[in-house]
Structure prediction request, 240 residues.
Amino acid sequence: MKKEKNFGDLVCGFYSFIGVVAVVVELCCFILMISGFETEMKVKLFGIELESLEYHQAKLYWERGNPMPKERLEIFYTVMDSLSEDVTVEYSLDENPTDFFYLTEETITRLYEIDPGNIAFARGGEVFLEPITGSEKIDDGLFAMILVHEYVHVIQYNHESYLNEYAKDVGWKEEIPQAEENFYKVLSQYSLENPHEDMSETYMFSYLCGNNLEALSEARIQHVEDFWGIPREQYCQNFH
Ligand SMILES: [Zn+2]
Prediction:
């Protein structure tokens, strides 16, 4: 004979099930919390299903099924640590929350008109990373520098006067007279494109210990020192 469950049994069963689920969810949250980041779902941003994680004041988004490779994620965390802890407070990640989007090429081209040669770019307070930045074509050091470079663009967006000060100090004018030798003391040709790229390139190169900054003009070196706020040997990184 079949024993019918009464309503009370069903209710008890339901609540103990919910109880178990709640404990599991809390446990997962706790593990994620102590490991320093949390993962969450963001449904339909740009009409695409995105997942994200938070680390310091950075939020990293990726398309469901296309996450940033694990080894790359480790570099991402290291750079976010530096931007958070080693940069002068005003320009630190803590004070300038930044969203990073690691998107597939198809999505980036669908959403933005960008130069095919671009591997990363910043728009306002957001940084977009092309999938090549997750591949072996870009080594760890370059990937770290790309993150610093784009983050500096975000800082320029948040602090226009800081960019203007940099531009004035290093010698940007309507027309640069050939005689101003110091102005041309940069580490890449791209620095001479405009003040934005000059600043991003200069700060980016300072992040890797192996890069020799001696070729930089005195004004640029001074700005690098002011940005990081601690001696170079304490913030610079070596990646393999
Ligand atoms: Zn740039």
